[in-house]
Amino acid sequence: MIPSLILWFTLFTLRPSTRPIQAPDPSPEAQEIASVIRQQLDAFTFNNYEEAYRLVSKKTKDRLSLDQYAQMVRAEYPEITKSLSVSLGEIRFAPDPTHATARVEITGFNHKKVTAEYQMIREEEGWRVDGITITTLRARGPIGWG
After folding, report:
1. Domain boundaries along the sequence of the chain
2. Burial (CB count <10 Å: 0-12, 13-18, 19+), residue 128
3. What superkingdom heads the lineage (predicted)?
4. pLDDT tens per residue, the chain (146 residues)?
């Protein structure tokens, strides 16, 4: 009984989101950005770093190999690698139509809530993740105060 409950819990909690992330802005550009973010988060959920890496910008690929990228993501973005819930907020387009920023609220498998600012860039293949800035939603004390 216990092993089957553990298996059920594992399959339930590690499955990709069944509801697509919908962009508040219904424009095709915003929907494509939302789709790229969802695909990357789903790839992280299943440890498919090759797929996640496929969705990053050329600049990121020039700077980091696949192995370096996977190691960096695991070390610096635990909430993103295993997310329990995701909510896409505002997508802001820069005056330059090849750049945008998407605000995403994520609850990680560790139950920490973060806001991720996805910097997106339009390349030949479509929209790609050019960087992510994370801020924790819960207040924390100064470094070292745990």
Report:
1. 21-136
2. buried
3. Bacteria
4. 554 434 333 334 444 443 445 555 678 999 999 999 999 999 999 999 999 999 999 999 999 999 999 999 999 988 899 899 999 999 999 999 999 999 999 998 888 999 999 999 999 999 999 999 998 765 444 444 44
The domain over range 21-136 is classified in CATH as 3.10.450.50: yes
CA 110 to each of CA 51, 81, 82: distance values in angstroms, whole numbers, following the listed order: 23, 10, 8
8 A C-beta contact, residue 44 and residue 80: yes
Phi, psi values for residue 145, rounded to 5°: -95, 5
